[in-house]
Amino acid sequence: MNKGYNYLDRLQSGRYFSEQHDQNVSAGAETPPAFYLEKEQKLADQVSLRVAERTMLGKRVKKLRRQGIIPANVYGLRQSSQALQVDLYTLERFLAKHHATRVITLEGASNGGSPLNALVRRVARSPRNGKILHVDFLRISMSEPITVRVPLVLKGDAPAVTVEGGVLLHLVDSVEIESLPGDLPEALEADVSVLKNMDDTLHLRDVPVPPKVKLLSDPDEPVAKVVAPRAVLAEAEKEAEKEAEKEAEAPAASEEATS
After folding, report:
1. In what order do the strands lie in the sheet with 46-50?
2. Distance between CA atoms of residues 135 and 90, nearest Å
3. pLDDT-above-90 percentage for the chain
4. Residue 120 pLDDT > 80, yes or no?
5. Is the pLDDT of residue 227 over 80?
6. Confidence band (pLDDT; 50, 70, 90) for 244?
């Protein structure tokens, strides 16, 4: 499966963070300031996230992290990257609640007096403990199409599984699409109820795509397949080999966040 989709990097439930925050407060930790709290914008069906401009750069961001503040950057639209910072507790709650294709208004980021709309582009985490180290936002224009990856989820019951006793393989977990930011779907759904026999396969061309969305991934790519239980291991090994080949051909990854 594709593991490179950073947008789908989900956190633990918001309840955990709420309980953890309560413990921190009980221990004397400072509650995040009110201006960091995210606000819903009901009319535009968007959300806003309070950020602040960042002056600490390079290795000095370690001090920010110790204070519960995460360094961030926003870039895109042929403009220079802007250094920002966001409260860790607020960011964790935000990511747990909102999908990665949700358009965000970054409050506190300078944008010539206009609202700064963005998407979460990448969340960098520590390989040791999974804690957030850095977040990148992509600056967007609501009138310009953008290219993103969205989740591909399976729905329904496959008769080849429920009746024949096969095993359903989810071969693709995200696909690349293009659309205006306001038309981005949270996910695409593949109906596996059409898989009635062993070795039946669902391809990306079989997945419904909203009318204002353009599919960029290969439509002939298989996304789901039902196999006999004994074939599961062989199929998993084949997919792992394909992923290894993709990673070997992919361009160099973007610069890692400062540890």
Report:
1. 39-41, 46-50, 104-107, 117-125, 132-139, 69-76, 79-87, 52-53
2. 13
3. 59
4. yes
5. yes
6. confident
Q: Is the dihedral of CA 210, 211, 213, 216 positive or negative?
A: positive
Q: How far apart are the first and last CA of the chain?
A: 28
Mean pLDDT of 185-193: 94
In the sheet with 174-179, reading across from the earlier edge strand, the strands are 188-191, 146-155, 174-179, 214-215
* Contacts made by residues 126-134, CB under 8 angstroms, sequence distance 24+: 126/259, 132/70, 132/88, 132/91, 132/92, 133/65, 133/70, 133/71, 133/257, 133/258, 133/259, 134/61, 134/70, 134/71, 134/72, 134/73, 134/257, 134/258
Listed range (19-33, 100-114, 118-132, 199-213) with the worst mean pLDDT = 19-33
How far is 120 from 184, CA to CA, in rounded Å?
Answer: 13
Which tokens is 23 given?
């413990």
Grade residue 118 by pLDDT with cuts at 50, 70 and 90: very high
Residue 54 and residue 135 in contact, taking contact as beta carbons nearer than 8 Å: no
